[in-house]
## 1
Amino acid sequence: MPITHIAGASVEGLPLSEAVRAGDFLFVSGMVGFNEAGDAIVDGGIGEETRRIMEDLKAILEEAGGDMSRIIKVCVFLTDANDFDAFNQAYATWFPGAKPARIGVVAGMTINAKVEMDFIAYLGD
């Protein structure tokens, strides 16, 4: 099975790949809502962070030959359980049809973000 590392958003200096394709599956590393410069979390709270993550994810999927409909599993990490409803509102706009499987966890982060997500996509026929 061929394994391909997808370029995606910058992770310069970190010991990881933004995304790795293994056969028909694409595994996307944990993503937070960095601003355009990639040097800080976007302003605007959980909704804006979620929107930014999903925009970056869409770009990675397109580079790999897929789209948002190919997401099959999402792991969500929130720093505050009180953000769950606002997160769901922002997240739901990206999956108007079939929804991927998902898990949500409330945990601390190593960066000053309110949300981090990782993804699995299926890119086969």
Note: The first strand starts at residue 3 and ends at 6.
## 2
Amino acid sequence: MGLSTHVLDTMHGTPAAGMAVELYATGGGAATLVKRFVLNQDGRSPDGPLYADGALKAGTYRLVFEVAAYFRGKGVDLPQPPFLDRVTLDFGIAHPQQHYHVPLLASPWSYSTYRGS
């Protein structure tokens, strides 16, 4: 049923509008860029699902979130190097007929994720 993501800025209590994200298909030791996008005002991909119904295949994927650049853009004074720079999530799709939602809750010092609905 597809793949989606969204990011919540837990430092400011808002969606992470303006954060850059990359999606990769991974496998066999290689990572192939599928798309780059910047999160909209809701902290979601402006184009909707990252993979639409029927296009998602079983396999492994990677989402890369530009956390430090986002927080610097919000005026947060981060050390150099930042504690978190790019947050990389590697995950597997076992049942592509189901919907996979991969949210990220992030601050400059922590993050969490889960499989949402």
Note: The mean pLDDT is 96.
